Backbone:
């Protein structure tokens, strides 16, 4: 059967959506009140709490397509600014890697020939040197308007190396992750509130500044290329 992997992937998505509708997994994981047991576990068994948090984050982001921001906020409340940032960064990177692998296995053979027909996508995501791929990865990770969950599967369709994708995702997602985690920790910590929120605002300025700069540069290059072709 043509595009067999694509149809298998679609069937898996449909099954997950149906099960999620029946058992309401998204509602449960997305509700902080249902995760209070993790807060108690932090004091009793920190390692187990960290592992459970990472597991729930990976499932929530990859399988249930919940927003990564949800888990960054949870990490700040549970573990504080530093450990929370590390845990969330590790969890979201692992989730990104798994989704990338799934996208590459199930989608690349059928989706790549279709997207290659677009000259702009071909230029930015399938260049031989690989430089454009990293640049676009940087933009999409820094600018929060690009859906995190869809990105992970979509990059599996490209030719970017798994190792490059993993390392770059970790680096480029870190500022945004820290921004939410440190900011949330500041709201929960009265003693260090001003410090943490100040750090979060500084990170927000850096993320938005870099995002705006990269987006402007990207759009400028697109316009210049369009003029050159006329």
Residues:
């Amino acid at each position: 059967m043509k595009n067999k992997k694509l149809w298998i992937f679609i069937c898996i998505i449909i099954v997950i959506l149906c099960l999620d509708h029946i058992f309401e997994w998204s509602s449960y994981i997305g509700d902080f009140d249902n995760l209070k047991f993790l807060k108690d576990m932090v004091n009793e068994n920190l390692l187990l709490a960290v592992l459970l948090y990472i597991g729930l984050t990976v499932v929530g982001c990859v399988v249930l397509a919940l927003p990564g921001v949800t888990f960054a906020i949870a990490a700040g409340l549970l573990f504080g600014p530093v450990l929370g940032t590390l845990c969330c960064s590790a969890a979201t990177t692992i989730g990104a890697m798994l989704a990338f692998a799934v996208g590459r296995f199930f989608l690349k053979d059928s989706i790549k020939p279709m997207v290659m027909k677009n000259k702009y996508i071909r230029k930015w995501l399938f260049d031989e040197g690989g430089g454009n791929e990293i640049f676009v990865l940087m933009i999409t990770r820094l600018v929060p308007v690009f859906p995190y969950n869809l990105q992970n599967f979509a990059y599996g369709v490209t030719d970017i190396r798994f190792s490059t994708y993993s390392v770059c995702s970790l680096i480029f997602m870190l500022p945004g992750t820290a921004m939410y985690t440190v900011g949330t920790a500041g709201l929960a910590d009265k003693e260090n509130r001003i410090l943490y929120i100040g750090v979060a605002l500084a990170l927000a300025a850096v993320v938005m500044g870099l995002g705006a700069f990269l987006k402007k540069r990207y759009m400028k290059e697109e316009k210049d290329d369009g003029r050159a072709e006329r």
